[in-house]
Structure formats: C-alpha cells, structure tokens
Amino acid sequence: MDLNSRMNLDNGDHEMEGRGQPVNPISQAISSSLLSLSVNVVFEFEEPIADVSRFTKTIIDAALPRNPLFSCIMKEDDLGVVRWEKTTVNTSDHTFIAEFPPRQESYDACVHDYISKLALTPFDPSRPLWEFHFLNYKTNKAKATMVFRFHHALGDGISFMSVLFCIAKRVDNPHLPPTFPTAPKPSIQSSHSGITLVAKFIQTLRYMMLVLWYTLVDVISSSLRMTGWIDDSQMPIRGPPEVKNAPVALSSASFLLEDLKQIKNSIGGTVNDVITGIVFYGVQRYLQIRFSAVAEYGLQDAYEKRFEMPEDTVIKQMKKLKLTALCLINMRALAGVQNMDEMLKPKAEAPWGNHFGFLPVRVPVLGQLENPLEFVRRAKSEMGRHKISLGVFMSGKIMAHLGWLKGPQDVSRYLYNFLANSTIAISNMIGPTEKVAIDGNTVKSFSFFVSGAPQSLEVFIVSYAGVVVVQIYAQKAYVDANMLSKCFIEASQEIKKAVLYK
After folding, report:
1. Could you tell me the pTM of the whole model?
2. 3-state secondary structure 311-372
3. Which of 3, 70, 139, 383 has its CB surrounded by the most CB atoms within 10 Å?
C-alpha cells in the first residue's frame, strides 16, 4: 500500500500566513484518535552536551527557517477543513531536560525507562508537533543522549533524514554535509541475446502476465487485510490492537555492514535482503523459545535449550502459523536522501511529506532450525516477487481516493486494520556513510522507532558509518525485547557461519 501526502509547500510562507494549506488526508489519518503515529529518533553522543541552549539553537536555526511546517499546528477552520496554521514557536516549550536521582551506579535503566515512557506520551496539539529531549547522563553506550520526536503527520523517515542533512556536519570535514549512499536504480539485464523474436515476445508476455497477476493478488490481499477479512495467526508475540497504549521495551542489535555485504556477495540480492533474512530467522528462533516455554519449560529454560531440536508439538504449532511482516518502502521517484531545500521545491522528485508504502511479506516459519541461509533466500525471493508487482502503488491510489471521497477517519480506520491484522512492521533507512557531529559533538550511534501503531512488535533498521542498528520496539507483555535482540545476533552469526562453510 502506497501512502503519498505531498505537503505542497510551493507557495512558502505566504500561504501559511493566510488561511493555511489544508492538511493532507493521509497526514490527518495518522494523527486521529484511532491512529496517531510519532517518530522517535535517539542520538547517542561521544561527549556530554555542555550547553543545551546552544545545542538546541544550532539545530533550530538550521532547520526551522527552511520548513514552515515546523512552525505550524493543525487546526480546523469554520468550514470544518483541517489546515496547517502558522503559530509562534517558543523554543522552551519544545526543549526538555531529563533529571534523574544523583550518584547512580548506572543510568542505563533510567534512560531506557524515560524513552520508553516518552514514546507513549501524546503531543500537545496547541504547539508545533516536535520536541527535543536531552538526557545528559552517561550510559554503557554513550556520554549523553538526545531524543528528537516529531509527529508522523509532518513527514516520514526520508523527511527526517533531510533534517539530519541540514543540522549535522561530517567529523572528518565539518565544512561538508553528511554523505548518504545513493540507492542504485534497478537495472534490467537483457536475456534476449542470441534468441529469436518469438522467444523475446514470449519472455515479455510472460513478464507482463506475472506483473498483472502479482498486482491483482497484492491489491486483493491488501484490501481484504484492510477490511479485516485477512488476519495473522494468534501467537505469543502478538497481542490485541489495544497494545498500542501498553508499556513498551526497547532493545537493539548492531551488525557490521561489511559482514552483511559478505553474506550478500555469497547469496546474491541486496543488503536489505540479508538484514530482512536475519530478522526473519531471529523471529523464528524467538518463536521456538516461546512455544517451547509454553509446552514444557519456563522462558529462561527454553532459551538455554534453544539449540536443541524442538519437540514435535512445537514444530507442528509453528508450521501452522500465518505471520506477515509489513515492510515500509520509500515511494518517491528519486531514491536516496536529498537535502531539505531540494525536497521542498515545487515538483521535487523526492518531495517532503509521507511517501511510503506498506509491502506485506509472508514471514517463513520452518518449524525447526534448518539451514539458516534459507531465511535469506526466502526473504530475497519474497522481496523480488513484490518488486515486479504494482500492488503497493495501486493500493495507495485506492487509499488516496478514499481519503478525498470518504474522509480521513475512514482512511485511519483502514490503516489501523491493515497494521492490526499483521504481526510485525519492519522499516529500513539508509543513514550517513561517515561519522557526523551536531554542534561539534560526534554522534556515536543513532536509531529510530515509530510509536502508536496497534502492533506488539516493530523492527527499525538504520545504517550509520559502517554499522547497521536493528532497533526493537515491543510491548512488554508479549515480547522480551532483550531476548529477541540476542536471537537476532545469534541468527546473524549462524547465517555468517553457514556462508563460510557453504
């Protein structure tokens, strides 16, 4: 499903200072009472933040003048039209400094609890929908942490990366902005050399028939999932939709980009296929532990016995599962990250706003620890099958028309069902290739997650300076986030070992 909500900032501040431009139905749909999504970006710094006021001013001075939406609130006019209305920005209303009890042996738990609770905190609709939270305490990972929160109605992950583009500088050369990898355009390799015109025609016809068939299947499947006719199986990692307001836990796993490329070069495909395969395999391992715990062990005992062959009852249970991951993809015409000024230009190829699609992918559940490479191969196969389908694009067009015809509330309900009837959401972003600094303080690592979705488990992936971070955002009652992150790490080790002994 493709969601496009161009912000239409072509008229700049002039339109904002007048009546204000209407808020796109998609942005309204993800900021409703039923579904309200927030993007949370966690920066970990190598040094303490000495002057929070100066640090905040550096960021705001770089970003705020470039994008009028950072100075707007959503407000309904006399005709019932929700518009972006210009307002005064008071920096102190958007800057929060955490205070914890002094002389703690470790502040890791304090920082984790703060961010976990923050994720469930709604924005004040009377103020522009963004915040900075500073946690100037040393943890095992960093000497200071900053959380940049903004409502998803303002834009998606690519839009955020454009903000990072304008506020961060390269550590090796502060005069240059960050460098983001350019996503290669898909190339079509000709296989027609040396074959007859008839064979060429048959190959082309076959390809067109596959495109039509896969598109039809995907559109029907997405429509049935949105209306509640298709649903995933009930399983230990899946709670009811109401879990969006339940206590959450965060955990992460880090992987060297070179290791992922080594696996990719051995099997083929892309780094995205490899990391998706690792997530799929890690989920399989975690499910085996959870089902074994239900069957005959406690959770910790089941974890310690995770390398043993599971019981037949566990294998049978797992093989019956229907488990879907919604993979978020960038739907802009121009791949890669652009700076904010380029994204705000009229008719930009990579415009600001929400331009992402949901790609429903069936997660393979093999029932036992078979060849780990099979998960990467299946991830590659699934992603490749969807690449020749227009289902994401067509479903998005249908959703956009519904937004204009029936209103944002109906779109919000369909999106809510689409998420609630799937088990996992997976989002993958490409970050800077080299270390960057904000106000001279080097970013050691950063990650992101989206809160407010009716799912018990979400996985967010971002690359930065040769490292890929997999962030887990999970409901405590259904997923042990720390145990799942260990499963991801072990999955990558098993896959890498399988490549070496292939």
Report:
1. 0.89
2. CHHHHHHHHCCCCEEEEEEECCCCCCCCCHHHHCCCCCCCCCEEEEEEEEEECCCCCCCCCC
3. 3
